[in-house]
Amino acid sequence: MSILDHSAIDYVGRTLHTADSYGKPGKTITAKADAVIVGAGPSGLVAGTILAESGWDVIIVEAGRFWHHESFQRRQSWAAKYLMQEQATRIMTGNAFIPVASGRGVGGGTLVNSAICFRAPKWVLDEWVEEWGLDYFEESQREALFAEVEEVIGVEPTSPDVAGENSMIARKGFDALGVDHGFMPRNAPGCVGCGTCQTGCPVGGKATADLTWLPRFLRAGGVLYADTRAEEIRVHNGRAIGIDAVMYDPEDNGEQAVFSIDADRTLVAAGAIDTALILQRQQLADSSGHLGNNLRVHPTCGVVARFDNRDIRLWSGATQGYYAHHPHNRDILLETFSASPDVFMTQMGTVGEIDPGEFLRTFRHLAACGLLLRDSSSGSVRPGDDGTARIRYRVGRRDVQKLRAGLYTVIDMFYEAGSRAIMPMVDGTRYFSTHRLARQHVAARNAASNFSLYSSHPMGTCRIGDDPDRCVVRPEDGQTYDVEGLHVVDSSLFPTAMGANPQVTIMAQALALGRRIAERS
Ligand SMILES: Cc1cc2nc3c(=O)[nH]c(=O)nc-3n(C[C@H](O)[C@H](O)[C@H](O)COP(=O)(O)OP(=O)(O)OC[C@H]3O[C@@H](n4cnc5c(N)ncnc54)[C@H](O)[C@@H]3O)c2cc1C
Ligand code: SF4
Q1: Could you tell me if 98 and 33 lie in one domain?
Q2: 490 in ligand 1 pocket by Cβ < 6 Å?
Q3: From the alpha carbon of 501, which atom of ligand 1 is closest?
Q4: Is residue 109 within 6 Å of ligand 1 at its C-beta?
Q5: Residue 123 lies in a domain
């Protein structure tokens, strides 16, 4: 039986409410629940499911829409407007220009992610247990947590049938280099290899949180309001007692309903940027002075390569179908990627001289592969005067070295796979006919601003750990040290960067914390 469950739509107008099904200007609603959860990304939906299945009355509010996969449009501009926070305009400032993307909607980042499913590496989990006291990730417990998540979301290596030519190029090149490599583990059992995960899966073949955890949540009696933004956490005598929220018309932003939700427990699962903003706006939970700091993002950079006698057709095949580990540095993970021509032209236009006509004519011959860093650099999030996020991040010298090391391996991979036109995404780039020339060009780039960087894994802004002087949240049950009844369960908890794509670890953590909240109450 398929794990893809498309039944949530049957609950629209019953316990899954949207501005269309529910809203009416001027409507004021008071509600009561055992727990209210802010955000229906993977962490919010996992924690909500666990609590609802434990017999709790749970309400989730989600600022974005509830989508049916047939509504997804395969255009970046459409996805930016409807599926991304702040319409994909969030940029980190510091010593480099780095966009930071977060998803929006029922399903959160899983709607737009590439379905890559890695567990946090063992040595990172060991560090989190030993240095930060995250006992739920102790060796005796972690296997069961990860296995449970992977079963629910259907993690499998990408089938060669849908992996596409880009993956086959990487397989050949990485094999020749002798590094550890393989077809990408992904949660996309219905993938047909259309290469557009980042605008929503148009065939509903990706096991997003709305097709896995959400139906379970609804079946267990959970209630979800989409198009509904939490505006304030209500606090009385040092204890969180629920939230105020507003349901908006998603097209014209008109107010459709005002909510006052009383709850014994308030869980914030709005993602690492928005959770920090929500708490900071009310100056909640910051006795450590660390709220909003310690931002990690896994910076990424890439290389494209032309194979003149081969059709790669980046638009066909799994969005990110192949990976390899760096031979010498475990903080570097190498992953193929695809994107539409406009995305490549924007990225490369900022760093090199490209002739758009020539680029489009040869697009079918291009392959692409990137790298992801486990960053030791860090940044911070603060609310701006206009309500948007102000995000600062400085890429440190060690991470610049890692960027170079990762690019060298990807360049070598493409050379071994047969390309004689290799273009690393760094300042002044062009096609280089040998790996040596491409490497030399990268070696001369010393500043972080010389690299075309991107990020989509914000984490760490509400650090969890057993030391209240350094952490915002306690490991016993995800409750903030300062405000009773106020919990955080999302990617903002990670004490350090985790070093691989995070959704599986986020869900495993939400599973553990959801159970602890249910047990301790
Ligand atoms: C383009 C892209 C590609 C990615 N690819 C991968 C991948 O292949 N594999 C992987 O492991 N990870 C990937 N990630 C990262 C992964 O999807 C995220 O780390 C994960 O979704 C974070 O989960 P979360 O629950 O912490 O928050 P999110 O998924 O960000 O969910 C938070 C939710 O809260 C809502 N929200 C925010 N503020 C409010 C408010 N005030 N009121 C109500 N709701 C609110 C948001 O709309 C959002 O839906 C990718 C991310 C992006 C953006
Ligand atoms: S590549 Fe596969 S999982 Fe991604 S959007 Fe296309 S069909 Fe869906």
Answers
A1: no
A2: yes
A3: 11
A4: yes
A5: no
Report pTM: 0.98
Residues with CB under 6 A from ligand 2: 115, 188, 191-197, 201, 203, 205-206, 318-319
Is the same domain home to 95 and 192? yes
Residues 369 and 421 grouped into a single domain: yes
Question: Same domain, yes or no, for 212 and 344?
Answer: no
Instruction: Please provide residue 402's backbone torsions phi and psi, each rounded to the nearest 5 degrees.
Output: -65, -40
Q: Give one DSSP letter per residue of 354-411, joined into a string.
A: --HHHHHHHGGGEEEEEEEE----EEEEEE-TTSSEEEEEE--HHHHHHHHHHHHHHH
SS3 content of the chain, % helix, strand, coil (to 5): 35, 25, 40
Phi-psi region of 449 (alpha: psi -120 to 50; beta: other; left: phi over 0): alpha
CATH classification at residue 175: 3.30.560
Banded pLDDT at 349 (limits 50, 70, 90): low
**% of the chain exceeding 90 in pLDDT:** 92
Asked if the structure places residue 406 within a domain, the reply is yes
Note whether residue 145 is domain-resident.
Answer: no
pLDDT, tens only, 235-254: 999 999 999 999 999 999 99
Residue among 317, 300, 318 at smallest CA distance from 114: 318
- Same domain as 309, residue 263: no
H or E segment to which residue 486 belongs: strand 486-488
Residue-wise pLDDT for 429-443, tens only, equals: 999 999 999 999 999
User: What's the 460 CA to ligand 1 centre distance in angstroms?
Assistant: 14
Q: Examine the domain organization and report whether 343 and 390 are in the same domain.
A: yes
What contacts 58, CB < 8 A, 6 or more positions away?
A: 33, 34, 35, 36, 37, 48, 51, 52, 217, 221, 222, 223
Looking at all shown ligands, the one closest to residue 120's CA atom is 1
Indicate the burial class of 73 (C-beta count within 10 angstroms; 0-12, 13-18, 19 or more): middle
Distance CA 255, CA 248 (A): 5
For residue 305, what are the contacts with CB-CB under 8 A and spacing of at least 6?
169, 366, 367, 368, 369, 414, 417, 419, 421, 422, 423
**Mean pLDDT, rounded, for 396-403:** 98
pLDDT in tens, 87-109: 999 999 999 999 999 999 999 99
96 with 226, same domain: the answer is: no
Measure the CA angle with vertex 45, ends 39 and 47; round to 5°. 105
Domain boundary among 435, 450, 465: 450
Q: Could you tell me the pLDDT band of residue 342, with boundaries at 50, 70 and 90?
A: confident
Instruction: Round to whole Å and give the CA distance between 424 and 408.
Output: 9
- Closest residue to atom 8 of ligand 2, CA basis: 201
In a domain, 391, yes or no: yes
313 and 282 share one domain: no
Owning domain of residue 166: 87-103+156-202+295-450
Q: How close is the Cα of 44 to the center of ligand 1, in Å?
A: 10
Overall number of domains in the chain: 2
